[in-house]
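Researcher: Quick test of sequence recovery. Tokens follow.
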């Protein structure tokens, strides 16, 4: 009987917390006027060369995609090194409100025809940089495999979980009157059918890119 009573109490607390989070989220989205925090500098100034990686092409979203993303600033650029190309996307939101929030790749990629083969969260040590957790995912579209490495940045905090991103948005909106955040993703085709080699190229790119990315983002 005591065990059943404890379980009921735990369930009751869980549902109360969920209801409070929903109410708080609605309040923040529709009623709380949070500060719009700009980047330190616009992403248009992002370097064309990162170590041995040089710009191949800048990509731009059409109006329909931009209306869907509601992003305040972004860069979508291909870099090339040797025979490998990598695609960098950074999307920055000065505030996150209903209809203007970071979209999870778990929803966007399958909607574009990509099928997830594997995914894991892992800590990477890139050169002299501090260890950082990222999401590493492999997706396939038709016969093409691509490795995606991504994370969320919320005022200097690196997150790999969209639900923690939502909680961080609520927390910062209430205590700090801001909800700015960025989504950072690199993707690289597994052209040689060698995932370890492909991931090593992606990590080499990130080692060069992360310090530059952080010089643009807010703290």
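Model:
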């Amino acid at each position: 009987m005591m065990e059943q009573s404890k379980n009921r109490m735990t369930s009751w607390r869980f549902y109360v917390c969920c209801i409070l989070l929903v109410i708080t989220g609605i309040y923040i989205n529709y009623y709380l006027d949070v500060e719009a925090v700009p980047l330190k500098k616009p992403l248009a100034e992002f370097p064309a060369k990162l170590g041995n990686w040089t710009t191949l092409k800048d990509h731009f979203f059409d109006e329909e995609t931009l209306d869907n993303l509601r992003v305040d600033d972004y860069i979508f650029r291909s870099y090339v090194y040797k025979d490998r190309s990598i695609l960098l996307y950074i999307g920055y939101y000065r505030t996150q409100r209903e209809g203007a929030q970071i979209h999870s790749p778990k929803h966007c990629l399958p909607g574009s025809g990509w099928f997830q083969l594997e995914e894991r969260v892992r800590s990477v040590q890139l050169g002299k940089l501090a260890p950082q957790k990222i999401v590493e995912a492999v997706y396939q579209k038709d016969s093409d495999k691509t490795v995606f490495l991504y994370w969320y940045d919320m005022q200097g905090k690196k997150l790999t979980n969209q639900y923690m991103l939502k909680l961080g948005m609520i927390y910062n909106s209430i205590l700090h009157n801001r909800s700015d955040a960025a989504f950072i993703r690199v993707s690289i085709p597994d052209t040689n059918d060698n995932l370890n080699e492909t991931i090593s190229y992606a990590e080499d790119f990130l080692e060069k890119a992360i310090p530059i990315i952080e010089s643009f983002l807010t703290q």
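Strands lie at 49-50, 53-58, 73-81, 84-93, 115-124, 132-141, 144-154, 157-159, 181-189.
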